[in-house]
């Protein structure tokens, strides 16, 4: 055979292959294909191919009016190197992967070689060869360009394969820069201290000195928080999350303002040293049940629907700790970056509208000493029924039960959201010192109702109301008897305005009452006007406003202002303001 004939047939193979590529679907690894080509039809779940079709009419989605009909007819009926899908479709508009390119080209090369070997002149005619030679000349530059692109793609793929961290693990992260501070007049003091001042048994100077000082610590700060996540999947449906975390964001709590009501949502202090902030494994059991096993850093609010979809996120939502969601989701007193929180959570889909969620988290599960461990120490258990009758409305009914042992100052009944009395209704416990604080062993029953309603694409209204009954589990006379109870209430309403100003932006307003002790059995049997009661005399209100500006897909800037009226539920305290600018980098 002459060189011209061989070259022409070589070009024939390429041209036929190019026309046949989209017709042949190979049983290649779909995961690898999706990594190589970013635009893949994810709806195609069938990877098997149909046998060779003998007529283009066997392809049900190919019509004579299609622009490539004649080319397909020729490839099917003259060259026989076209295959369809099992459902007799061709899917001509489907994106082409390099695996399919190779399979189609190989099929047509084999067919042409068969034709050459059998010298079947009536199938490959001289007119065909002349046409192919003309095509070779006309499309020489295009073929060269395509060859160059394929070579470059092969080189890039080889580099990625040789340098990839893992075939099962992906990496993502976020960094928060924050600048701001608190401002106002004096630090807040609780109602019991104020009763002593008004009763003349103490002075302002003495009470402020005992609580840490009179003036706010109002210097401006610049801080950061870093989270690096390794997300691994072994089946495509499961998820192993390993989080490294570092933080140096000071707590705007009692030491700074006299109250926890002013805390930021991302505060924490590891002195910017990295630790394992969260380690969990999430996997499905069947089609309706999803299981989360938290080894460390477990949080109910991450595992379940918390009904504040746009403002609950730390890097993108509310700037304050208390404005993210109901305090019931902190019943376990655990969280990412604090080395506490081990247990199991489940979400079970009862129907398309109803989901049941339940979980158990122990605070110090890794410690085998008495009063700790998985079942003998502080823990939280939560059950929730979520009802979503349509895509705009969601309702949640939640119950939780907690036990706080009192050791290591771990009593935090209200999630460190509200006043001091709401978090430790029965005060300090036996043996408590400034260097080794201890609380009264306390159990608590929580009840909360949450809702979220998307009024329209630009406005989402959410909120919650919660009641907690705390119960003293030990006696510490003269003020605490086992079985003493305290009633605690909280509520909030949130207004979220997505895409405010431009797509990706978010405006938010949150107004509510931090957890407040309305009734408490604490105290001596005979009370005086100045007796300690650990019962709030007034009502604090929290008002927060924020605006997140989305610079691009990876960077956002959020200025926010938090105002606490009557801090520590004491109207004698000055209003305290927290102003912050949060910049978030996500990658």
UniProtKB/TrEMBL annotation:
Residues in SLH domain copies: 55-119
Annotated Pfam families: OprB (PF04966), SLH (PF00395)
The GO cellular component terms are: membrane
| Source taxon at top rank | Bacteria
Q: Which InterPro entries match?
A: Carb-sel_porin_OprB (IPR007049), Cell_Envelope_Struct_Comp (IPR051465), OprB_sf (IPR038673), Por_som-like (IPR047684), SLH_dom (IPR001119)
BP term (GO), one: carbohydrate transport
Q: Which UniProt keywords apply?
A: Signal
Asked if the keyword Signal belongs to this entry, the reply reads: yes
GO MF annotation terms = porin activity
Instruction: Specify the signal sequence span.
Output: 1-22
Q: What family does the entry list?
A: Belongs to the OprB family.
Protein name per its UniProtKB record: S-layer region-like protein
């Amino acid at each position: 055979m002459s060189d011209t004939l061989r070259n022409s047939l070589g070009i024939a193979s390429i041209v036929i292959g190019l026309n046949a590529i989209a017709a042949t679907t190979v049983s290649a690894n779909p995961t690898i294909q999706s990594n190589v080509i970013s635009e893949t039809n994810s709806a195609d779940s069938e990877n098997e191919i149909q046998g060779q079709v003998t007529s283009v009419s066997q392809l049900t989605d190919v019509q004579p009016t299609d622009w490539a009909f004649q080319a397909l007819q020729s490839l099917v009926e003259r060259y026989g190197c076209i295959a369809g899908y099992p459902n007799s479709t061709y899917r001509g508009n489907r994106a082409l992967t390099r695996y399919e390119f190779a399979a189609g080209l190989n099929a047509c090369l084999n067919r042409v070689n068969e034709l050459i070997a059998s010298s079947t002149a009536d199938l490959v005619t001289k007119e065909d060869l002349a046409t192919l030679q003309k095509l070779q000349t006309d499309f020489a530059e295009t073929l060269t360009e395509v060859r160059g692109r394929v070579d470059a793609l092969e080189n890039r793929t080889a580099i990625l394969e040789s340098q990839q961290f893992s075939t099962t693990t992906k990496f993502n992260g976020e960094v928060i820069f924050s600048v701001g501070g608190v401002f106002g007049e004096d630090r807040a003091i609780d109602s019991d201290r104020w009763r002593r001042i008004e009763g003349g048994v103490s002075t302002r100077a003495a009470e402020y000195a005992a609580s840490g000082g009179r003036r706010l610590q109002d210097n401006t700060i610049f801080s950061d928080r870093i989270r690096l996540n390794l997300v691994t999947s072994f089946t495509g449906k499961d998820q192993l999350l390993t989080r490294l975390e570092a933080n140096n964001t000071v707590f705007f709590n009692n030491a700074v303002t006299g109250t926890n009501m002013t805390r930021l949502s991302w505060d924490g202090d590891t002195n910017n040293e990295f630790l394992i902030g969260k380690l969990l494994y999430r996997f499905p059991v069947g089609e309706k049940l999803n299981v989360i096993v938290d080894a460390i850093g477990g949080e109910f609010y991450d595992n379940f629907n918390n009904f504040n979809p746009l403002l609950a996120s730390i890097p993108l939502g509310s700037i304050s700790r208390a404005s993210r969601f109901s305090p019931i989701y902190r019943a376990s007193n655990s969280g990412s970056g604090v080395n506490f929180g081990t247990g199991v959570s489940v979400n079970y889909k009862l129907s398309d509208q109803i989901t049941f969620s339940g979980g158990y988290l122990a605070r110090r599960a890794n410690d085998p000493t008495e009063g700790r461990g998985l079942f003998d120490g502080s823990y939280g258990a939560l059950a929730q029924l979520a009802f979503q009758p349509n895509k705009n409305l969601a309702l949640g009914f939640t119950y939780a039960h907690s036990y706080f042992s009192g050791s290591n100052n771990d009593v935090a009944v209200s999630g460190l959201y509200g006043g001091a009395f709401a978090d430790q209704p029965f005060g300090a416990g036996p043996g408590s010192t400034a260097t080794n604080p201890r609380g009264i062993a306390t159990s608590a029953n929580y009840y909360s109702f949450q809702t979220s309603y998307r009024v329209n694409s630009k406005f989402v209204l959410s909120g919650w109301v919660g009641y907690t009954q705390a119960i003293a589990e030990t006696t510490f006379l003269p003020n605490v008897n086992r079985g003493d109870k305290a009633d605690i209430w909280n509520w909030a309403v949130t207004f979220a305005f997505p895409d405010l100003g431009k797509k990706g932006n978010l405006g938010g307003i949150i107004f509510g009452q931090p957890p407040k002790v309305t009734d408490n059995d604490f105290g001596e049997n005979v009370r005086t006007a100045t007796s300690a009661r650990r019962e709030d005399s007034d009502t604090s209100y929290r008002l927060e406003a924020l605006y997140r500006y989305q610079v691009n897909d990876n960077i956002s800037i959020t200025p926010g202002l938090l105002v606490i009226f009557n801090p520590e539920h004491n109207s004698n305290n000055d209003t305290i303001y927290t102003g912050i600018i949060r910049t978030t980098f996500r990658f």
